[in-house]
Predict the structure.
Amino acid sequence: MNIVVCMKRVPDTAAKIRVSSNGKTIDESGIEYVINPYDEYAIEEALRIKEKSGGEVIILTLDSSDAQPVVRNALAMGADRAVLLKCAAKPVDSLATAQALAAGLKELNADIILMGKQAVDYDNLQVGPMVGQLLGIPCVSVITKLEIADGKAVARRQIEGGEEVVETTLPAIFTAQKGLNEPRYASLKGIMAAKKKSLVEKDAQSAEECIEVLKMEIPPARKGGRIVGQGIDAVPELVKLLQFEAKVL
Amino acid sequence: MMANILVFAEQRDGKFKKSAYEVIGAAKNIASQIGGQVVALVVGSGIEGIAGELAGYGADKIVVADNEVLKLYSTAGYSAAVVEAVKKNDAGCVLMPASFMGKDLAPAVAAALGTASATDAIGIEVADGAVVATRPVYGGKSLVKVKSKKAPFIVTLRPNVFPVPQKDESKSAAIEKIDAHISADSIKAKVKEVVAGAAGKLDLTEASIIVAGGRGMKGPEGFKVLEELADAIGGVVGASRSAVDAGWISQADQVGQTGKVVSPTLYIACGISGAIQHLAGMSSSKCIVAINKDPEAPIFQIADFGIVGDLFEVVPALKAEIKKAVGG
């Protein structure tokens, strides 16, 4: 079983975001980068499938060489090797990202492709279904459970107020939602082993971006901080404010 | 002639989602500035009977892809229908709800057409003749305005942000059938079963009132107090990451950067301190109320109204007071 996990390096979720002087991207100074949290579920699921059915887990990422340390963290979790599709700047556009990943995936001959349902930087939720369309294979997005047997997969995907049980042929793409599993931490042994694992850099296939960012801005700060009072005595006043000032009741 | 705006009017079980009407309203607003017609597309099986209803919300024309194969959602089946409708209707822009369905469908359609797609827009406008979408990035810590260099521009709109147009019963529109040219065999990923969560429960992303709990709930039992308040005021219960990670409540209920990003009218945060990741997911709520023992909790800095106190006393009192004030 060839299992490929598409991974992205993103700013730590605790990072405070500032807009850079060009007004279109974030100011990256002082930002710590981590594995996209949803991709950690994808990596964990890949490792579990390998532990059960055998095969190889390959990490595929689209980034600059700066991504190497974060990719090594994925190898430390237990992935076998990694391919870094090198580009000068990560595309903002999901389609350009998907096209570059699809080109990389064609060489890896995957039976199962896993990735996070979204990257927590641009929050697009688009790359999985786009890669599926480009490669002509199914994508089941936002999954919370995955079972592989007899060359088929049965996944549960989240929908409003419930879940869908989806059966699909392989090869297929699955995008991971929180709840799919509990990602493991890298062990010291894993971290040592990761240093020796193969991490190949290749030039990414360049793709034309069709999204144009006109402007990035920080949403206006909320004017909060109005303490109505202490304990239950403040409740009648709060309800009045909600009813007559905020008009939300 | 200006290009048209195609709206994917989402239905499940023969009923339109409220967000389908919201999207038609947004499309109408765009069409009034750049011209063209609002063409509403309904995909499903046995849905011809409900399609006409969309005229009342502003659809100038209604297109129906009605096929047994399309009874349940599939990326392959539904994207084939949308692509066909785009081609037949000269669509310069395609709008869909940013529901689980829309967020799965839009990228597949965009990739099939080789064009751009923007997810979960909270604003859409016309600038210099082009459709510009505003969308949150970095979990809502920042906003970007984007446009597409190619047509059609596919945009999904966040539920609950755009108003539902006033329905005009007197309006009617032509209904046209299209064939998605899709067979059951060509759908490789099939829905076998739809498992309902709590019956009829509204999703957090669609709720207009959310009562959320955090670490201050102390355990799964604590959430019962929130359920009671939510039931009394027609709201839905949500949670912060710490409550979800502690196993007190399901992951589907998590609000925040690694949970759901929500925009309700009223967000009542109970026992939530206000980590930056949580604030990212809820700070676009219209009105935020915070109830917390700790007067220094960061949540108070962004809440419109706060009460410092024990939520296990304040929440039941709030329920009683709201019932008294609103329930008569």
